[in-house]
Amino acid sequence: MKKILLLFLLITTLNFSKENVRAVSTSQFTTEMLLAIGAENQILGTAYLDDEILPELREKYNKIPVLSKGAPTKEQFYSLNPNFLTGWKSIATPKNLGTVEELKENGVEVVFTKSQDSSKIEDIYSDILMFGDIFNLKDNAKNVVKNMKEDINKVKEKNKNKNNIKVFAYDSQESAPFVVGGNGIGNTMIEIAGGENIFKDTNFSFGIGTWEKVLDENPEAIIVIDYGSVSYENKIKYLKNNSPISQLEAVKKNKFIRIPLSYISPGIKVSKGIEIISNGLREEKK
Hints:
The protein has 286 residues and is of the alpha/beta class. It is 43% helix and 16% strand.
């Protein structure tokens, strides 16, 4: 009896994995991963768009319903009859779509990417390959990973004999800066791009830093993450006119590198994000 039950579970899992996925994606990075591997026909809806979808994925994306700018309601979610959920981990909480246990009880398989809690680009590759397996698009997923590796290796080769440039990566906030820390993919991207993150010794991916630390470190370039209700231009205006670091050389000389949030999030854009940072750092060095 146990063998029969085990076989049944295996068969239903395989059927789910290969043919019957009805997915909702609640982060831009998972949405772009799924679109990049060609899973658009199995995506019922999306949410949490940080900025523009990659141009080559836009046509696919525009055919899929957007449930919400932020977290969709349970009514919006279940109206689609999904059986698969991925995206930000925060979506599986009582105030949003319910706990993982509740979702599973309602017939929804929940898969969160390992890379959103990791500083390793290899974990992004693993997530893409995982989705390739779940959506029966293994070859497509392998090609996406292959192209990302090639692009990143080109940047590594370009920077291998160059000195690292000290960098402050500013996300937002004024009383104390919200920054890219040392325990996430952003720090790894900065290192590959030829930078040294002044908050590399912190244990967070994004978190609260201090203006005193920025002043003490005197970075040569400032990465400014573009997203949210405060525009990139207004962030620059604050740093130049009202911030405690307005007199730093990097600020006075406009040594700013703009990067949209989705290019420094754990998804397929990291290779392009690394290139943006690398080009910006080398430009500042001239």
